[in-house]
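Predict the assembly for these two chains.
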Amino acid sequence: MLEVRDLRVRFGRFTAVDGVSLSVGPDETVGLVGESGSGKTTVARAVVGLVRPESGSVLFDGAPLGPVGRRPASLQRAVQMVFQDPRSSLNPRMSVSAIIDEAWRTHPSSAPSGDRTTALHSVLDDVGLDSSVARHRAGELSGGQCQRVSIARALAVKPRLLVCDEAVSALDVSVQAQILRLLVDLQQRHHLAMLFISHDLGVVHQIADRIAVMRRGVLVEEGPATDVLGAPQHEYTRSLLDAALELTRES
Amino acid sequence: MTDALEVAGLVVDLPGRGGPVRVVDDVSFDIPAATTVGLIGESGSGKTMTANAVIDLLPSGATTGGSLRWRGEELLRASRARRRQVRGHEIAMIFQDPLAALNPTQTVGRQVGEILRRAGQSPQQVRSRVIELLDRAGIPEPAARLRSYPHEFSGGMRQRAMIALALAGSPALLLADEPTTALDVTVQARILRLLRDIQEDEGLAMLLVSHDLRVVAHVAHQVVVMYAGRVAERGPTSAVLREPAHPYTRALVDSVPAVRTRTALAHPLPGTPATPANRPSGCAFHPRCPIAREVCRVEQPSVRSVGSGRWAACHFAEEA
């Protein structure tokens, strides 16, 4: 469904992504892991069209995606992103209902044909929010509620691929578990494909079918999640695993 | 073993719009000498305010109650001069963001040496001691890095510089607030190992504040779990993590995924962490608690003994 081919992104003289290829199939979750500076976020931003690749291509169902402004509306709708910090990715003064409405105005083909209020409540219900939240401004909500609103905004336009960039990293531990569970439930319910970017190997291991490991702009290892984290082939993946803390103390 | 720090019934009130808000409420725990205590909690748990009370860095307008005894001496009622003497010398602190804590306009060598210069050491003494401290903190070629500025260091090296700075006053207690949260995993592992080595070699007492159970499991001998400004549970780390006596601790433990093997998603707690400003009646955890009953809605559980060295604030600790 999503195919990234030999992607190269440069910022000035700095090569952030250097020839990365990966694919995400329907109903599939691909985890993209790496440390800061590995280029994983830049890959995500290239997929949603927020950065322009120097070379290579991003294809969706075989069609090139191109930059976000020039992307055909249907493709733009199909790929939605959930960001790390829900507070800064939502306008704090906008009400939740206005935020969802805006998504529908941007993508009129996804807007409800019937009663908007009913559709709004059903979108909120989908992400586990009470319909009373619709009246609240984003700035009045907790971090977990904001992240649910971000997910609702992405889902409102009926995407086929969800790109989550550190979508649970900024949340409290007990709220992280809720949002992860929500993402997995939604993925199954709506048959979404998911590109899940995270530095947390444990979280990725729980939800990804396949895992790609990036280092300094290059993809060093890719394969089924249990293989990559259970029996890593690349030395860098092994060093990430060695450094990752388990809850049980080994010394 | 003598306790370096005894926290007893600590209370911190902050001014709020509708009157003072109790952000730390009746918190008690000890840090024995040569022991690391991990302080775990989510946002609003009061963990950082507890640490700030110990290091005397509470925001203006904050009022305190209870007791903070440092080697037998009551800190809450000590003179300002005496508290200043303790802070940075006997008790030193490592912050989450070294860039914010280090002065960008001064060389690392100058900042680490500041406390030594003020103590009247000669420039030669200061220089050799600073090199020793940078070396202790694992900074390669310390003599060459004296003249570096913080921005010339990587995140991990900056955190090492801050550790050197904290050690300069020869502290007996080290407070570390989320010391590795901003770092990559490979760097985090090295910094945690360094902190553990320093704590053991120097026989320091350490208070490690973190939201990450894995970090605490890795370095702390004892753990204190806080929720909505109060202690939920405390005890030896391995025992608490193996058999939590509070349903909140249980949920935190269950939410930590394994890395090398695939674990099923945890059954998440409902709702969001309670905050002191918005504290439910009775046990503050009851709206999210899987085993809450009527009594939990009305009666606040006090911290009680639930086994050897184990304490929990739960009416039904035996069922957690």
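Chain B touches chain A through 40 residues (CB under 8 Å). The two ends of chain B are 31 Å apart (CA to CA).
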